[in-house]
Amino acid sequence: MPNPPKNVPPTNVASKPGRLAVTPEDITAAGASIAGSVVVTECDQSRTLSEIGGCNLWLKFENLQFTSTFKERGALNRLLALSPEERRRGVIAMSAGNHAQGVAYHASRLGIPAAIVMPVGTPMVKIENTRRHGANTIISGKTLEEAGEFARTHGETHGMIMIHPYDDPLIIAGQGTIALEMLRAAPQLDTLVVPIGGGGLISGMAVAAKSLKPDLQIVGVQAQLYPSMYNAIKGDHLPMRGDTLAEGIAVKVPGRITTEIIRRLVDDIVLVTEDQIERAVAMLIAIEKTVVEGAGAAGLAAVLAARERFAGRHVGLVLTGGNIDTRLIASVLTRELAREGRLTQIAIDIVDRPGQLAAVSALLAEAGANIIEVSHQRTFSDLPAKGTLLEVVIETRDRVHLDEVMKRLGEAGFVAWLPGRR
């Protein structure tokens, strides 16, 4: 795992001086405010993932909220605090998708006009879901920060109330209700592994959880491509760039309030790679039969990447959202099949004469491989003029079976290789 985490001892809340912007009482009040309007999602132990991870894993299914995201907790708590005059003025928010849906949905329920600014590149499923809830959706800015600047200017011009996605005590308190529900369902939890974008979720959960169990370990997770909070807390300067599957936590500038809470209450922050996030998404679909977006799978990715760290512990994970494009799901699952050796492209140098394709097909069939795609390439290759490049996509049981197929091809006199590995 890149950038190994520096272990930090457990934080004792009582030993830290000063008052934080969010208190346990704020989170209890938020729980009472949103009760009945937000789903108390299941928090269940996964026997299979526990065996794979070497620890007792509990999953909080926030991807099963009405908007498929935990974000509606904080959004509703903030909207309920508006005065009648503020409700008439309407609200505006910037979001990479999930906060947008939470604000749009509950603003519509409460009869509050809402405008949402979303950066270019936001997954279409999140944009369409936000529009479906009746909000005025504006696409502006290459990043969440640029979208935020536009939202602030637009909101001031039109007299709207800004609903920040994470750096707001009421938002943080709403997200913290998740920890109360998790510890109520699984009081034996001794570790929480929580994704970090701007930090609203982990901040609220840390305040709630540490007030109930001061020695409980809280580990934050960020995508390696966007280590903003990691840098802020650890004093590092790792770069931030590129497209991540976990766009929901791709935040370049963490919150001021959230950074202070995390610095005080969170025990460590770790980073996960894109491959690790992809595998976690695929594993949750295959094992739990639940669809989770990249950010929502980050916690599982962290546990599987550092099994020794969490060995034997009672670990709670938040599946923060399920808003992921179906095309992207297909790509993730197909790529995982390729990693496992179950779906592979093979290149074969064959003589350009009748019967060669039939011979290859028969051999693959005898070896138990299923042919998915076949392509002949006579022109654009560096093979001799009398040769043909045959590209075949095959399905095998696993990597061992794939190795057997490659061996059979070689024994039959065919020159075969895996593209990129010759």
What does it look like?
With 422 residues, the protein is of the alpha/beta class. The chain is 43% helix and 18% strand. The protein contains 17 helices and 14 strands. The strands form 3 sheets. It has a 6-stranded mixed β-sheet. Strands 5-4-3-6 form a 4-stranded parallel β-sheet, sandwiched between helices. Strands 12-13-11-14 form a 4-stranded antiparallel β-sheet. Helix 9 links the parallel strand 7 (191-195) and strand 8 (217-223). 47% of the residues are buried.
List keywords for this structure.
422 residues; 14 strands; elongated
End-to-end Cα distance: 27 Å
Q: How is the biggest beta sheet arranged?
A: 6 strands, mixed
Mean pLDDT: 91
Shape by Cα distribution: elongated
Category from helices, strands and their pairing: alpha/beta
Instruction: Count every beta strand, where a strand is a DSSP E run of 2 or more residues.
Output: 14
Strand content: 15-25%
Gyration radius (Cα, Å) is 25 Å
Number of helices: 17
Question: Would you identify the regions where 5 or more consecutive residues have pLDDT less than 50?
Answer: 1-16
Q: How do the strands of the widest beta sheet line up side by side?
A: 1-2-10-7-8-9
Helix content: 40-55%
